[in-house]
Amino acid sequence: MAGDEPSRPLPLVTEANRFFWTAGADDTLRIQHCRACDSLIHPPAPVCRYCRGTDLDVRDVSGTGTLAGFTVNHRFALPGLPPPYVVAQVALVEDPRIRLTTNIIDHDPDDLWLGMTVQVDFQHIDDVWLPVFTPVAEQAEPAALPTDEIAPDDFARYVRPMATAEKFEDKVALTGVGMSRIGRRLMVPPLSLTVDACQQAVADAGLTMDDIDGIATYPGGGNVGGFGEGGVTPVEAALGLRPTWHNGGIETFGPGGSVIAAMMAVASGLARHVLCYRTVWEATYNELLKRGEITQPSARTQSWMVPFGATSAAHTLAQNAQRHFHRYGTTKETLGWIALNQRANAGVNPTAVYRDPMTMDDYLAARPITTPFGLFDCDVPCDGAVAVIVSAADVARDLAKPPVLVEAVGTQIIERMDWDQSTLTHEPQVLGQAAHMWSRTSLRPEDVQIAELYDGFTMNCLSWIEALGFCGIGEARDFLDGGKNISREGQIALNTHGGQLSHGRTHGMGLVHEAVVQLRGEAGDRQVADASVGVVSSGGLTPSGVLLLRSAA
Known about the structure:
Elements: H1 18-21, E1 29-34, E2 40-41, E3 56-61, E4 64-73, E5 85-92, E6 99-103, E7 117-125, E8 128-135, E9 172-179, H2 190-204, E10 214-217, H3 232-239, E11 245-248, H4 257-267, E12 273-281, H5 282-291, H6 313-328, H7 332-346, H8 360-365, E13 368-370, E14 373-374, E15 383-392, H9 393-396, E16 404-410, H10 431-438, E17 450-452, H11 458-467, H12 476-480, E18 493-494, H13 499-503, H14 509-520, E19 533-540, E20 542-551
Parallel strand pairs: 10-11, 10-12, 17-18, 17-19
Antiparallel strand pairs: 1-2, 1-3, 4-5, 4-7, 5-6, 7-8, 9-15, 9-16, 12-15, 13-14, 16-20, 19-20
Helix pairs in contact: 7-11, 10-11
């Protein structure tokens, strides 16, 4: 198909991927192939991930596949790709481990179902042929969906044993927290929010800026839009810290990963007090985009998903949620209990963005974003900054507030990191990190009173609940039903400040802040009685991190 529609984001064509993006020139789908083990490989790589061989070629494939996931996008729009449109994952019949992110075209979305047989077509734009799919005319019984490379309940088998008997976690503590004002479209420079949160955290610990000898942040410098204050450089310049150690980067243990990185720096003796911070100003950034006061860079993308309109993590997680529904009988109401819990907690937190009461009817009636997600399945873009001080344990008890101790962390990557090639029914980069954390402690899920779990979307939170063992894999429907088990008086108090769904998208660090406040007993009206052990997760899809914390009492 050749078209003259307005250009949508197109892939950057390189020598390594040209065979894929130009295959449609002769209507033949092509995938990289390993001669040694006869596996197909996607995305292309210089080595086979299965046998680590390097005898690779390109194979013509039939273009027939199984519809392994789909979401109807109602919210996000791209030039040449107005909503609604269907983002899908198709498993190739030659090797169902290979799943292509794509679009389903020329078919009513209401008549799609998992397991349909689909056939490739190509949309020709400029020098690219985008492989899209349409259901075949004659459908047999729905095909079985592809299976996970590692079953969701089998991740513990792949956890690496501790490298040493001595845990670095025993050498560190969280000693101070700070949070700037949180709000929608504050229209202030993001660095001012950062400095405010940092000053609060240092004062909360009873330290001065001269005591701070390390700084850490996420995602660091670079063009990250409304997701950062600029990294290490502007904060050091503003505060004049002269650190002996610093760290800022996006490929770490989730958006709160700076805290785990700081722990390792302190445990190694490279610093004594590390100031960790995270700033978002997405609400203001989006407003400035609307006004035309800033512009987004336009260039071809290296993503294998964006050319098909899969521009948000929502498009991946919505399909994971769909498959969780399909396999385990989970419902949209299951996700709704998470959203309602967070809103109820936000109602007693004066710093939360959204505090008005919400009912299940309100949740179910919300406008669709990308099926099955509606508005209240998604976190709240906001402006704000959070800071946390990581200190050496041997000095922590002499500071202003009772320290929060670190029992264990979980950071191991076990599953594939490519979003559309990873775990099917849960958020990727959750199950492995959770299993890794439990391998580093004798505590068990029943010892935990509070869980501050990453909730960029309700599905993130459900995935962490099951991964951490608060209920079994596939048992979230019964566990969450009615919301009692996750209330502040329930089995595990979940996201007690309102989470990112109602408090605001502070991108992981707000969860750390809340855990510290709860374990100190300083949470006021939302305080969980006798909270002494808490778990905090950060991220998912991208590599994540999870912390098990305990009070010093």
